[in-house]
Amino acid sequence: MFENLTEKLERSFKILKGEGRITEINVAETLKEIRRALIDADVNYKVAKTFTDEVKTKALGQNVLTAIKPGQMLTKIVRDELAALMGGTATDIKLEGNPAVVLIAGLQGSGKTTFSGKLASFIKSKKGRQVLLVAGDVYRPAAIDQLKILGQQIGVEVYTEEGNKNPVQIAQNAIAYARQKSINTVIVDTAGRLAVDEAMMVEITAIKAAVNPSETLFVVDSMTGQDAVNTAREFNERLDFDGVVLTKLDGDTRGGAAISIRSVVNKPLKFISSGEKMDTLQVFHPERMADRILGMGDVVSLVERAQEQYDEEEARKLKKKIVKNQFNFNDFISQINQIKKMGNLKDLASMIPGMGKLLKNVDISDDVFKQTEAIISSMTPEEREKPEIINARRRERIAKGSGTTIADVNRLMKQFDDMRKVMKMAAGGRMGMPKMPRGMRR
Fold it and tell me: Is the per-residue pLDDT at 308 higher than 60?
């Protein structure tokens, strides 16, 4: 999302790095470039201007001009101010009441229904609560079917009333149903609407008054850029929502909405979402996003995602196998599947400091493991269990079965063997990590 902005900000800081002597003039020049970079990323002009003025005040107040490494100090100030601009710290979703009601609102096509499913999955898995999804969009015929499909995917019941065209009534009846079934969380999906459509705005206001939600979330498509911020402001004036959700962050977006929205509507950005998969919803952490914007990565989020797939007992068993040099292709494919569950590979790689810049023009497909999986799938159970028995004839058969070449199979076998050696040394607790084997450098 922020690739272009990150690159331009790095260029801005080079103005300071390239100077033998730091002056108030070239600090001002750096901030001018930062402001231009923010505006190019579709950040609200007033927000960008106020931001750089604040950075300048902080920078001059902290003696950046006389600092040993002024470029680094200014980078830190920009990072801290960016985090503050986006809200400072993460804001948790409020789930109060019996049941807790979450009302979803937004424009047509903003991704409300998909988000409703993702949020239900998040609350069920992360909060350990029972969830009822409510099909409150009575105008789009496919909306109810879409919600039903999402509900089946995540194992959450969907409340519908065929033939009832009154969303206020449907929402009230759904809450009564939830109480009867002892379901403690209700998520009400609603129809998309424009802020200028008076009848539709009256309707969403009536739904909110009727269900008294503990949380009203405004869902906005990040690809609409500055329009997203303006729409949020218009909705907030009528609905007084509690938080914002930015969707479609995997699309062609400059990211300005994420930076501007908190400052313009004075409501926290609570979630960010990308893709169609139900596990791609993330709590919005302003400080982590600031790090990513400045190319510093986001190791904390990467570790959290890894921990979600981490099974301590399995890890212990795996370590024993590695130490005994018994790590096999079944274990290898299991590790690949865990990595795939963590999300988009390029997104994961960008969380490692410095990697975002290296991968800027590199296309990392989610099918990157496809060939490896095909080769392993073409092995017999015995071959996967005992890789050492795979001789030349077996490799030829595996290549034919997987639609690859013998060279591809040989390359995988070499990489696998090198990886086993590295993992054994690491698991054995030897001091120092060996260099990455040549076969793994790709």
Answer: no
